[in-house]
């Protein structure tokens, strides 16, 4: 780094020794580890060690990144060869040391059956590494129950963040809403939010018979008669949407419809006359340090609930896992979240009305 100091012999003689000693320091042990993965090939440039200017802004495609395709292809080859997680971010929140580890796999690879074993092996290795390093909380992008069953002696707690995702979704629905349309791949979060809405007396409408049958079988009499099926796209002004939402379905929505994603990936914003909420996320407190990059498409200092959930687990000292079909108490998680300074985001219709 100090190039001219070397040239003009003004370099401090102790610099080399100081540098060598700093490399010998003990590796920092994380309290909470958040597991994530690359989304698109270009997303590697949006990591902290990519381009700082891109990392500091929400993820979006840029035309000049196409010029870097030869480098991008090499990075894809490297991630294929480098079959271990790597640290992409370190934060501190009060006394907690937080780390984000990236799995060198892209979003599309999670959908490929022949990649399933490879992805699961990497996640399992990451869980065991976190256990070895003494982490007290671990957040996964998948439900993670298989790792608990395979390693029942785990001290590290696996947290998928589903309960907090449901809490944020419920608080993102505008007050006074009497019915919502549920559309997309039915996940653990989708089933839980449908149940919670029915219990609150809000009608949940689905468009497809297979989705209705799955939800009806899961909820049964607990739906309180609030689960219905309909062929009309115009009956609801609030849509809870997942990964399977099509462009054609978006175009059938009424003007002014609010799309609220319950998935980890946001829908493509096709309608300028509609409103799009972010994927489940919250504003972080000022006490969270070293937040100098954006988490995917979220604004600065906004964090996904799947990441926050692991932090809450460690802050509160909760001993149970939240993975598989298990969920934490929604009200308990929401109250703890607010207590520690995390704040809900504004619903888009509120800011424009």
UniProtKB/TrEMBL annotation:
Keyword field: Membrane, Transmembrane, Transmembrane helix
Location within or outside the cell: Membrane
A single Gene Ontology CC term: membrane
Pfam families linked: CER1-like_C
InterPro entries: CER1-like_C (IPR021940)
Annotated Very-long-chain aldehyde decarbonylase CER1-like C-terminal domain residues: 180-344
Membrane topology type: Multi-pass membrane protein
Highest taxon, organism lineage: Eukaryota
Protein name per UniProt: Very-long-chain aldehyde decarbonylase CER1-like C-terminal domain-containing protein
Transmembrane segments: 63-82
Keyword Transmembrane helix: yes
